[in-house]
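The protein record quoted in full:

***
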Amino acid sequence: MEQYNDDERVEDLKKWWRDNGVSVMVGIALGIAAIFGWRYWISYRDAQAEQASLAYDAFIEAVEKPDADQARQRGEGLLTDFPKSSYTTLTTLRLAKLAVDSGDQAMAIQRLQWVIDHAKLDELQDIARLRLARVLFAAGQLTEAENLLERVNTTGLTAEREELRGDLHLAGNDPAKARTAYAEALAAGGVSPLLRLKLDNLAAPTADTVITAPAPPPPDPPAESAEPAAITAPPVSEAPAAETPVVEAPKAPVAEEAPATTAPEAPAAAPEAPAEPAPSISGPPS
């Protein structure tokens, strides 16, 4: 009876294998294929990541050189060959900066908007928003730039965000809000010397900062300046005029006019010229 039961079990097992053997073999084959497929995918992904890393290094090296066209070509090649790589977002940010440096604002806006829409990290999205706000600010689109700044929430970007907000308020002729934004940027850790200069230029005047102009010095008294004119001795230097009567002795009228012209200046010349020259003048006519 026991042997009979074993035979029945064998028959049942054979029957089950006939019914399910194919499925079991297929399952085992799929499992083995999945294991090898997963290993292949891991190996392929690592190889792609390594190639993308090398391509990104070559792109950065080209960016640091003055040849912007070569850097742009390498960046475009990386985006084409590795569209799903983690380096795609970083490459797009770099390409946006190259577009800004070359003056292509439309391309820069397109690149930064792509990062905002496709970046997986919130920090990278906020970096793209901040840079896009700067581009829009340079283009004169103040309202759009302000709306982008409202969506920047990364703590590490607070100082840059508030400084740019201050620039927007200052461009909008609102120095009070600009001063508040600059102060918040400085409190958030802003260390830019330009930020400190902006804040100092908008500082409210106080009694200590107001500089009063010094009073002009009093003018010199004019009484002392007139005295040397009276003491000067041009009349005394004219004493050689006595020689003219000597040269022109035959002309008696000239000799008579000389005392008349010098008579008003006699008090000034009295200390230095005695009255003795008078006889010398009247001598020749006699």
Observations:
- Residues 1-85 form one domain.
